[in-house]
Structures are given as structure tokens and as C-alpha cells.
Amino acid sequence: MKLRILDDSVRLRLSRSEVLDLGAGRRVEGRTSLPSGDLVYAVEASASLGVGLTDGHLLVTVPEVDVEAWAGGDEPVGIYGTVGSVAVAVEKDFQCLIPRPGVDRDDFYPNPKTPRA
Fold first, then answer.
1. Among the four residues 18, 29, 56, 76, which has the most C-beta atoms within 10 Å?
2. Mean pLDDT over each residue of the chain, to the nearest integer
3. What is the pTM (predicted TM-score) of this model?
4. Per residue in 81-113, is it b (16+ CB within 10 Å) or e — as a string?
């Protein structure tokens, strides 16, 4: 899972297996080890959209009803909303158009902008 924070917005991008886990009701968690401690971020299905920070852990919750439709197919790309002044996006992660060395692309969604052969 990738995390992007820009001012008052939080965006998570999930691989295929992470989307399936979330769709099955499992929490998806990422962790970045920093010299001063771990940055932990997670997403889980809940009754409503939410975002919060507790004891250094960032948690994004997305409505269960939206997760079911989202995880069940190739559309839509993401679940979007606003919590207070924070824009929240939880999206499917697509393969980059230009492959990056060392990045395993197998668990990403096919990029809809990939030229057809």
C-alpha cells in the first residue's frame, strides 16, 4: 500500500491483493521504519468514512457498502470523500506506464492508459 499526504489530503493506493483483503473485511496495514520509530498507516472497512491519528498510527476507514462494490470489479477506481477539512482517497494502484527497475508490477492493476499492441 502506498501513502500520500499533501496538505489536507490523504491518499492510499492498494494493490490487487490488498483490495481483496479489504473486500474480505481484513484490515490492510503499511509500515515505514524511520530512525525515530515506525510510521504505521492502515485502512479498514467500517460504517462510515473516517480518518484519524492515534498514538502515531494513521487509520482511514471506508464505508463497508462502498468497499463491497469497489473490491468486486475493475470499476470504480477509488472511494473518495471528505472528513472535516481532509480529503480522503482510497484507490486501486495501477501499473506505471514506464516500468521502474526493481518494482514488481504483478500485483498492480493494468493501467487503462497502456497502449494496446
1. 18
2. 86
3. 0.83
4. bebeebebbbbbbbbeeeeeeeeeeeebbeeee
